[in-house]
Amino acid sequence: MASHEEAKLETFLQWLQANGVELRGCKIKYSDETKGFGIFSSIDTPDGVLLVVPLDLAITPMRVLQDPLLGPECRAMFEEGEVDDRFLMILFLTVERLRKDSLWKPYLDMLPTTFGNPLWFTDDELLELKGTSLYRATKLQKKTLVSLFEDKVKGLVEKLLSVVGDSKRANSVFWARALNIPFPHSYVFPKFQEDQDGCCSSLKNSAGVSDNHKPEVEVYAIKSNDKASTSTDTVWVEGLVPGIDFCNHDIKVAATWEVDGTGITTGVPLSMYLLSVERTLFQTEKEISISYGNKGNEELLYLYGFVIENNPDDYLMVHYPVEAIPNVPFPDAKGQLLEAQKAELRCLLPKSLLDRGFFPASIPNNGCSDKCMTDKISNFSWSGQRKMPSYLNKLVFPEEFLTALRTIAMKEDELFKVSSLLEELVSSQGERQPSDAEVRSAVWEACGDSGALQLLVDLLHKKIMDLEESCGLEDCDSETLEEPNSAISLEQHQRYENELHFDGSVLT
């Protein structure tokens, strides 16, 4: 690690100490060029508590609203509904990075300046994602960020600091490092005076930094003037927690993080701490990882800028675009039916679920006989006369998604029949709204699955075509096959091509 990076780390460690952070069984050091800095084990701790961070140090939307510089401007926009709490965080990171005398400078200097998520891809790199959900999400995110910067951020930052900020970097910092923190209710909504002196959170110079290790910049401690009570009520708030946010992700986690409201675990009330989950023999210098959640590679790349080889949480997303609904016949009526049925316009199919294509590995046996299954379908049908389809217990697609496709694919006479069935139900049982299950039954009775399955085939076919257009299967694969050292045989290639194309037979 270069001397400049070492100096930044030393300053940051002193800043953490000045703000009450306790590195009890770990240390922060450089990991590698892909991960940046990480947290590593140093000594064994009897209680497994590795790191303790006072919640006063967390950067949250409440802190932004209480900031002397940003608070008044942000509070007005927030109360008018112009911005959300995530915007407040991104704006705070943008402004604080530009403040030459920022009290957060030692922490902000440690944050990465470039990221691996698609927001930072070149145009050519982004084109490699074309045809995927990630490509569309990134294009939309770029457009949204440009609009957000021009409409909200630029003018406000120029007004406050007379400079233009980098909202793309702040956005990436937030999404890559934010945690969903369970704060005590009284900590999120403290009682404080309206004047500046009574503001809940303030920034004060630290008097506890040793002169023997004087950092290049002044180290400050962030304190709270108001003693928040340790209420049992919990409010989940997104925020950045300096120190804990240096934990990198791994499928096999080494630690979890918890909030200690009373101090009974750590001795530090209103704090967040890392707790070791290792049951094996203690190892020094081992990186301490946490889990960012069971996320597929598209989501990991979108949020954090990395992927995991053979990710067990990968999934295929199949969706019907909501922007296409206004173009279907009778969009208003179908929109009301979709809402009434609590239908889902997309489904996520885990990688493990697709080992045998779009069919489950085995038919689940919950002690339910064929007659039981038939009765279940008969009860789902309005009249009980519609026969149970042979594929019902074979498809992996969830019922909520098929419900949406049935509704979207309905023809005029089928829509009229649904309306008549629901009117008959309401008139026979008094004035009331039909339940979501009753609406689903009416839709099933009217149209079955013929239109839904055809629409599903079209969606899958479109998804495959989008991916083929992006990766150039026909051209690129032909060139590969002509190479003398190609490991792909013509037979293998033909089988691969056949597996990529769908027709109605796979769904019946």
UniProtKB/TrEMBL annotation:
Q: Where are the transmembrane segments?
A: none
Q: What's the domain of life for this entry?
A: Eukaryota
Entry protein name = SET domain-containing protein
**Which species?**
Tripterygium wilfordii
- Which range is the signal sequence, renumbered to this chain? none
| One annotated GO molecular function | protein-lysine N-methyltransferase activity
InterPro entries in the record, alphabetically? SET_dom_sf (IPR046341), SETD3_SETD6_MTase (IPR050600)
Q: Which PANTHER family match?
A: SET DOMAIN-CONTAINING PROTEIN, UNCHARACTERIZED PUTATIVE METHYLTRANSFERASE
